[in-house]
Structures are given as structure tokens and as C-alpha cells.
Amino acid sequence: MNEQIENNFSYHAPTPGQPEIYQAIREKAKELAYLIDELAPGSREKSLAMTNLEQSVFWANAAVARN
Length: 67
Known about the structure:
By secondary structure, the protein is mainly alpha-helical. It has helices spanning 3-8, 18-39, 44-66. Helix 2 (18-39) runs antiparallel to helix 3.
């Protein structure tokens, strides 16, 4: 059995304090998303920046949940 696979593909119920961490990460990312939206011209690159910002939030929250 591979412990990392088991951990990565399991449900992780939030522990006390984790929802607040998730929210803080999302709020900071949202600030950056608005800045990018305001300053970057509409383009493929802007779309990629937004997509990768969403992925960053996902992976940061996964780091909290999994560890």
C-alpha cells in the first residue's frame, strides 16, 4: 500500500481552524485576481494567469488538508 496515494485520494474532513485557513487563502487570491483583472489586458496570458491562480488556491488548500 502506498501511503501517499491513499492520502491524496482520500476525503479529509476539515479539522478545527482549517476552514479559516482556506478562507484566508481564497481571500488573498481573490485580491490578486482582481488586480490581474484590472491591470492585465484581455489575452491568453491573462486567462492562464487566472487559471493558475485558481490552481494555486486549490493546491495550497490541499496542502492544508493533506498535511
